[in-house]
């Protein structure tokens, strides 16, 4: 073969290339030992409009007998934007921050009620931004939520994700990440819920007290735990263990005997949207729930007839709750069910004539709920 | 000018050669580019784009059937004469080098933004060009074998994307065709540009050792594969991002994959990018080959493209270093895209007409 280069030159070229290949790492290497790994972030809004950025990073203290203790360190700083606050933080912490491993974003209610997209923009823009971190709203200040020292885990980056995951399993909300809410923030006619936390300083714990309803980029209301669970079911999402406790009568002296707790086993949801020619929207939300009785201190479930009676009571109770919940979402203008999106998808002509910003409040949503007890545990 | 007999590839390898030439640097931003024109009907645009490519492939086939052992360059010589042919050949070589440098500069820009912000661009470009030179210098069959082998990586690519089916909202593609046919056709134009690479048919076809109809079959298979692959990617991106967020993400595929994380592997986008780099390399190699094959056609005695690879690569590196920053690179890319109108659509069709009108054909030799 007629080669352009001699063997010697090839060898030289090869060596040069090898050297170049080996060099590339040097520009962009980031050593973990040289950076502060941020594992949880809290964002708050000061009354003067500045952002308080609170971060948690682990510090390893070498103990005496080869035991090393990992400790969470909390620092915070203010700035005009999230990144500005982070720059200010960098000025007072040794080593560079690395936020790419962040697990959870806690947003103070004040900031959430104003707008969240602007504060998160920096994360979307950064190729190493932690877009799969979970997001939650804190009642009061997010800074406080990172300063508590829960006994479950000394590390905030473990405590909060685990807390959110376990609460999500009992059906309060679907876990949303920074990325998943971004899509929903921009989507029309489809809103979202974020977990809503309260800090209990006495017990040094955070507690999920329900969900925060969002419309586009800001928080517009809150739901209690029970309401969120039902709303999620009405949205056709069944988590592992959605449970409800309802009052079924109030004659018993021992108060506990007035209640029943059910675990939702299976759901079947159908949403039908009727639009009249003058764009009046009627949504029929049929939800069939198969439930297990988890707790029934009165113990009267020995026949199908009794179960039927209970079914009726439960259906009545849950329908009432559903109506209340839906009214709340409409008041908050939070279209969690995605009714608007469905109208846009399947009735585009009507959608163009509507103004969903205003119209969602005025549509009528009729829940038709049917509860059936299918199991009652291992006793009657 | 006849080709060396032993340097031939099979029609099976030809399929992968065209697929790999088509799938390249543009794939990351392809769904976005189409989306800007066609909105959430982009996937239809891609399908229509595939049909257009098929028509072009048939035209190419008719042209190349008349000159079974010639590449585009020799066809130019024999239909338009040595002088005009020479000029057009030169233009083609410049076009291929420009596409090559466009690939290099887009590649370095994306790597710079996504994973190696501090590494200088020239280094990335030189590394890529180095790989290109190394691979293209050998015979075409080596290149083809390499292409077949790395096509396995496309499966990884697809699997990574399929994972996103867990997190999509099917309602996002509705209402279908709300804005009418015009935006879809505009999107088709953009889709066509990301399918560029099938013009390799004009260069590689004579190297394929099989009947003419089999060549067309092979090219059609690769076109169908690429079309389905592209519309699948576009569809997934639409389902994932919905209508408004899409506008914000110029590299939707990468962005989507970045938001996933597995237990054992946190940044899948890095894995994805590594697979993508191979695709970039293969399409760069294809253009490098096309350019050096063109340079070879000017020489009377040389029957190997290898000596010219180096010059073509150097040129493409130098040109690719000129545009700097996202906006400049974008402008350069648009410029090259418009050139492909002339070189992929216009000239080959003109050439076909010319050869049909003048009844020019390669002399039969049996």
Automatic annotation (TrEMBL), chain A:
Tell me a GO biological process for this protein.
spore germination
Is Lipoprotein a UniProt keyword of this protein?
yes
Looking at the UniProt record for this protein, which Gene Ontology cellular component terms does it annotate, in alphabetical order?
membrane
Q: How does it sit in the membrane?
A: Lipid-anchor
**Superkingdom of origin:** Bacteria
UniProt keyword terms in alphabetical order? Germination, Lipoprotein, Membrane, Palmitate, Signal
Q: Known Pfam families for this protein?
A: Spore_GerAC, Spore_GerAC_N
Q: Where is the Spore germination GerAC-like C-terminal domain?
A: 210-377
InterPro entries documented for this protein: GerAC_N, Spore_GerAC-like, Spore_GerAC-like_C, Spore_GerAC_C_sf
In this chain the Spore germination protein N-terminal domain maps to 28-199
**Annotated compartments:** Membrane
Its family remark reads: Belongs to the GerABKC lipoprotein family.
This protein is called Uncharacterized protein
Provenance organism: Fictibacillus enclensis
UniProtKB/TrEMBL annotation, chain B:
- Kindly list the GO CC terms recorded for this protein: membrane
Alphabetically list the UniProt keywords: Germination, Membrane, Transmembrane, Transmembrane helix, Transport
Where in or outside the cell it occurs: the entry states: Membrane
| Transmembrane annotation, as ranges | 12-36, 42-63, 75-98, 110-134, 146-166, 191-209, 221-243, 270-296, 308-326, 338-357
Q: Does the keyword Transmembrane apply?
A: yes
The annotated topology with respect to the bilayer is: Multi-pass membrane protein
User: Is Disulfide bond set as a keyword in this record?
Assistant: no
GO process terms (BP): spore germination
Name the InterPro entries on file.
Spore_GerAB
Q: Which family does it belong to?
A: Belongs to the amino acid-polyamine-organocation (APC) superfamily. Spore germination protein (SGP) (TC 2.A.3.9) family.
* Protein name according to UniProt: Uncharacterized protein
